[in-house]
Design goal:
This protein is an alpha/beta fold. The protein folds into 2 domains: about 130 residues, Rossmann fold, CATH 3.40.50; about 60 residues, Arc Repressor Mutant, subunit A. It contains 10 helices and 6 strands. A 6-stranded parallel β-sheet has the order 2-1-3-4-5-6, sandwiched between helices. Helix 7 crosses helix 10 and helix 8 packs across helix 9. InterPro entries: CheY-like_superfamily, Sig_transdc_resp-reg_C-effctor, Sig_transdc_resp-reg_receiver, WalR-like, WH-like_DNA-bd_sf. This is Response regulator. Keywords: DNA-binding, Phosphoprotein. Pfam families: Response_reg.
């Protein structure tokens, strides 16, 4: 989020009607501003004047590009991404969040719900609709916590043997922020019934949950 408190939003979607409707609706929303729109990720990275706070990414684009490749291209640049799609699958939501997306929302939601999720992603929270979150949990053993991309990045760096300072540098955040992420990760594992208090225990959770793959 910018210093003004306004969240800037770029959209990658070839649905012109949706994008124009969103642009018109956002004129009434003081804290979210649409700053760029393209039909492909390649075009976004080539033409965007400045990186926005959040990228709204349609999962299935008309150019036939691979959805996960599109997402990874943005995640590698440390972009916060909210994926939107007509695909109503808890498994798909799990896949995109594990690949680094900040959230997943199906297109059957209204614009108010979309903006609410944009705000969550901007705050580095994991943004899922209630229905998808419940579907995801139903498909899991229930003991694997949902980590935000930032929490996961710090966890992977720290559990690999780095110091907290080095892990923070690797994740592109300040040491104090990295410490907060680690505390949140530990709290999530504790609530999942799999407490991890030391670096070795965190490394065990990374291995058990296949987070490094």
């Amino acid at each position: 989020m910018g210093k003004t408190g306004v969240i800037t939003l770029s959209v990658v979607d070839d649905d012109r009607m949706l994008t124009e409707g969103l642009a018109a609706w956002l004129h009434k929303i003081p804290d979210v501003r649409l700053t760029w729109w393209t039909a492909t990720v390649t075009e976004l990275l080539r033409t965007e004047p400045a990186p926005s706070d959040v990228v709204l990414l349609d999962l299935l684009l008309a150019d036939g590009s691979d959805p996960m490749d599109n997402l990874r291209a943005l995640v590698r640049l440390r972009r916060r991404v909210l994926v939107v799609s007509v695909v109503t699958s808890g498994d798909m939501a799990r896949r995109v969040v594990e690949a680094g997306a900040g959230g997943y929302l199906t297109k059957d939601h209204d614009l108010a719900a979309l903006v609410a999720k944009v705000r969550e992603v901007a705050k580095e929270e994991v943004a899922l609709s209630r229905e998808l979150a419940l579907g995801w949990l139903a498909d899991r053993d229930g003991d694997r916590p949902v980590l935000s991309p930032q929490e996961r990045a710090v966890l992977l760096a720290y559990a690999s043997g780095m110091t907290l300072t080095a892990a923070a540098r690797s994740a592109g955040v300040q040491p104090g922020t990295a410490k907060n992420y680690l505390e949140r990760v530990k709290d999530k594992y504790r609530k999942a019934g799999r407490p991890a208090y030391t670096k070795l225990e965190l490394a065990d959770r990374v291995r058990e949950d296949g987070l490094a793959t």
